[in-house]
Amino acid sequence: MSLQGAFRALSDPTRREILLLLSRQDMSVGEVCTRFRITRTAVKKHLSILEEGGLVSAQTQGRERINRLSPEPLAAVADWISYFSQFWDTRLDALQAAIEADTQAQQQTSPPAPEAEAPETGVIESGTIETGAAPRTSGATAPANASRKDTQDE
Amino acid sequence: MNDTLVKTVFFNVPPATVWRFLTDKDKLGTWFHPARKDLAEGEAFECYQTSETGETSRHIWGEVLTADAPHRLVHTFEIPAFSGVATTVEWVLEPIPSGTRLTLTHTGVARAMGDAALPMLMALDAGWEEHFALLRPAAMAQAA
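^ inputs. structure came back:
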């Protein structure tokens, strides 16, 4: 199972809507079309991406293709511990940035931060202490998440 | 299944400063989501989101179980996808020579999610979308 395909399928709000519809009942392409104000071609495209992602299976019944939700990959995608781990990493980065901004505003002595490499994140797992996780200095200020954004490209 | 998340992060400001960012309704908005009122022991709290039309809706909420300033804050943590099952978040602030060590412990997530995978994914709004995007590389690495 390609997790990549499942993520691609889930990345679009219309496709997530379609999944939600299919979670209630199986539907033909035509039935799915009645729920959206987009062309039949667009709906079919979404369905085929969902199928490629393993989230929907389609069965031919007579002249119709009946689409059915395949929830199995969702379990793999929905690793909630990872999800919330990332959630807190993002928030804690934002907290560090917010506190730094606040400190600098109070001191009012901050020269503009140079274009620095995004610092190592100060967030570490399970209490493991790294020397690299020392408090950031003002010179190392980076937008929250800067150290992560660059790893998200496909 | 390991159902506990632990994060440790360091700040070069004293615990009292960090504490304000965890409990002040407006300071919470600078890094999390703004709260309706300051967090106080024994009271419910609600962090909200503001839509494009200016309406606010509760986003993350819970009850403050312990607020021992500036040492320890414990609160339940609920989101719509948990459908009524509360998880628990504990913040421990320890003074260190250069500032504060903050340890976050979030328990009960997997239990709270249960079979709610699909509703959760459906509930992804702009804010969560960002986190979901971040999950991708992690999940990829795990699948590899």
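Chain A is about 50% helix and 10% strand. The CA atoms of residues 101 and 107 of chain A lie 10 Å apart.
thumbs up if we can close this ticket
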